[in-house]
Design a protein that fits this description.
The chain is mainly alpha-helical and 180 residues long. It contains 8 helices and no strands.
Length: 180
């Protein structure tokens, strides 16, 4: 991360890093009334460790991947060069997105539910994308494992999926629903 990046944000009327204590909004459900409590302080320390490892995590937490940041910087650089009558830089190639399991488009279906039919489970099959949720999470920033997070959990999903399907298919749906 360039040392002089904060002045760039300041010149643009923004800030990359918090400047005042009130810039960070935190809350904890613990009974300690101080803020930061020990739980919030622990999160700050973990974030500090992760920022040391990957300074671009601050952009990720703001919804901008490292690749998107570089693409935008190249586009901005291209516009600046065009303004100086110099040829614009070629835009960076966009990586293909990883296929993910679709989310429902109507959140009220989750909160309000739908009437259950005769077969409340519907068709039961293995998900079209293995380990869809961990894939959606991406590189888990607080993972302390020896191997990358996704590489560690994918075998668990690969083992659990067929076992869960076997268990479900071998039970009476009413027993499975009751947790028997």
């Amino acid at each position: 991360m360039p040392q002089d990046i904060e002045p760039v944000f300041t010149a643009a009327g923004s800030s990359l890093f918090p400047a005042r204590r009130n810039d960070l909004k935190t809350a904890c459900s613990c009974p300690d009334s101080s803020n930061p409590c020990k739980h919030i302080a622990a999160v700050y320390y973990l974030l500090g460790e992760e920022f040391d490892r990957d300074p671009f995590l601050i952009f990720t937490l703001r919804g901008l991947t490292r690749e998107e940041l570089f693409e935008r910087l190249e586009q901005a650089d291209g516009k600046a060069r065009a303004a100086d009558s110099q040829p614009a830089a070629e835009p960076a190639g966009v990586a293909e997105p990883v296929a993910s399991e679709p989310l429902p488009s109507d959140p009220s279906l989750f909160w309000n539910g739908q009437p259950l039919g005769e077969d409340p489970f519907g068709e039961v099959a293995a998900p079209p994308v293995a380990a869809a949720l961990p894939r959606r999470l991406g590189g888990f920033p607080f993972w302390r494992g020896v191997q990358p997070f996704l590489a560690a959990v994918e075998p668990v999903y690969a083992t659990a999926t067929p076992r869960a399907l076997d268990l479900f298919v071998s039970q009476d749906p009413h027993d499975a629903r009751a947790g028997n």
